[in-house]
Amino acid sequence: MKISTKGRYALRMLVELAMQRENGYIALKDIAENQSISKKYLEQIAPLLNRAGLLKTNRGYQGGYMLAKDPADCTVGEILRVTEGSLAPIPCLEHDVNDCPRADKCSTLFVWEGLYSAINEYVDGITLQDILDRCTDADGGDYCI
Hints:
Blueprint: H1 5-19, H2 28-35, H3 39-51, E1 55-58, E2 64-67, H4 76-84, H5 109-124, H6 128-139
Antiparallel strand pairs: 1-2
């Protein structure tokens, strides 16, 4: 499994918004500048996050983006699934029901199921708040991404 630029940038965007949540709506150009990410790339990611209920948007003069959830309620797994789709390490685990014709005979299926379970447990166990806390602890009050 490899996380794409889209997934990594979406996570950085949401961490940035979590860090600035007291400042209200943040312009996309400011997020792009603070994170050294192309504004055009963020323009492609923002609608995905908005549709998933992770972002609030406001148009016009004080417009921009803000988190739609508390950082403690937003997991890395949720963000990655929005941008990456399934985090399954093999195609036959991408759906709730494994419809692979070899599933009942597959001697290695338990390996992939275990890996998938470990991936989900790990990314679902980390929230944006955890990232904020870790950055604050590591830098003595300043934030990092």
